[in-house]
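fold-stage: in
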Amino acid sequence: MGKMMLAQQRRTKILELLQEEGSARVSALSKLFEVSEPTIRQDLERLESDGYISREHGGAYLKTIPEQVRSLALHHTENMDKKIRIGKKAVGFIENGDFVILDSGTTVTEIAKNLENKKDLKIITTSLNIALLLGAHYEFEVMVTGGDFKAPTLSLTGEKAANFFQQIYVNKLFLATGGLSLETGLTYPGFNDLKVKKAMIDSASEVYLVADSTKIGKTSFAALGPVELVQYLITDAGIDAKTKTQLESRGIKVIVTD
């Protein structure tokens, strides 16, 4: 039973990673999960038969990628009611004239959708869909990082994206996460983004983490660092009182949507 559970957990993590990165090689997954390549191939066969992925020689890719990229659709569309409320709340912390970094993902996209009444913003983003959403606004100066294209999040990642933030200083960063836990801190489904997230945090005077309550207590695969990396958490009313108090005791201002 233990091995069955471990295999199922590993397949869940592999799927989370593919939903974040778009594709992966068998050899890389074998090293990452410290199991043999035949074991990974069995995992991918199972995920393919369950309809989530398509296998290719030496790896696999997320089945929905071509349609998502063509339609500029993001993958993580669950809990949208919570994310919409968080997006509206977060806009209240952006002042006219601010220089901000907007991370990629569905929650941060909801912030971008609500910026139409703001003036004189300078915005840097790793997100191509956010750049397209805000680029036509005559009041905004929009900059996009370079980097490797990551299809599920319609974003740019890797060393080049991280290097973009050298010698850049902004008022505020609105940061996404895969999981937030008092024990494991901020975690993400894949390693590629960690350098980018760290570089964005280093560039910002204030860091606002935007995460719906289903992410709280969750641990994803790759650890960025402790919760103290952020000064603010904007979340929904699903956060429990004990966790809110514990986060506040560690110096994080917790802002809850209506």
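fold-stage: in (second)
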Amino acid sequence: MARKPRIEKNGFYHILNRGVARSFIFKNEQDYLKFLEILQEASQDYDFEIYSYCLMGNHYHLLIKIKKENLSTIMQKVNSRYSIYFNHKYKRVGPLWQGRFKSWFVYDEVYLKTLVRYIEFNPIKANIVNEIGIYRWSMSSCNFKLSMLNFELIDVTDFDTKFNNNEEMRVEELFKSKFKIEENKTIKKIELKSIGSYFELNEDRELAIYLAVIDGYTQSDIAKHLNLSNVAISKILKIYKQKVTLFNKLKNKGIFWSYSKDITYKEIGDRLFIEYLLKYGDFYDIALGFRLFGKRQIKKVWEEILVGDQRFIKLNLMIARVFLDMSVESDYFKGVKNARFEKFKLLAS
């Protein structure tokens, strides 16, 4: 059966190739340098740029931007030239590569930013190094200033936070994606659930909107379904993403140490997140929490869990005065009963 032709539209592609039977394709420094040299020469012939790369022992990742519909030509040239070099050097015969290179068209900015982190975090995931910028054969190390390398995305990517489960799922979604060409445009093929099902299954409207967008619905689709404006949907999404960012920041500080290290914001939920944010977040984290969740929601959690807890009198005084505009003294909290504790007492009696 003839192979299906690859979709080759101008734009970004994630490229992956492995050694046959997962064997090594880079054995020493000279091999890594030769591969980069071949890439550089190909970029001059075929006019493309590399926005992220990581060369591992038995495979490589590239985030490449092509300006012409010539991806197959580029990669066939690169892989063929390197295979000839490698087989000659190590006196071997047969194919070097596991098969045809794998490629995924990057169809939106969310995936583009996630892919940069995915590629650059490979050596950390493999326990080769423990921080970004150390592994010599990744673009974030900035060891090579070749004309094919465009550092625009590397320079604006946040590498301070660990690559998390949400991002992993996003990359897996990209790997599973299929595309078609309609009216000379590359379009993602999606078998979508009905838009209403997201809101039936999730009481949290912000989460439902976020999941619908991740699965491929446009903000306009969601706005129409909810009878809201596009601006309102955009604002809701922005707030939800800020909440996730704040959660990941606190998780990386070890605040959720008693939970699985892979716990997500979706799994922990607003109520528990707010509790931990108030107890263990710094002043600026708490201030951001009030902006994202609103005074009413945070006050409800605060009154139920923290107000009567004698361990947090100073914290409660600060929250009351600074964020809730309450004119109270510390004695106020000494006489307040803890609502959750009283509920447990009642259940135990």
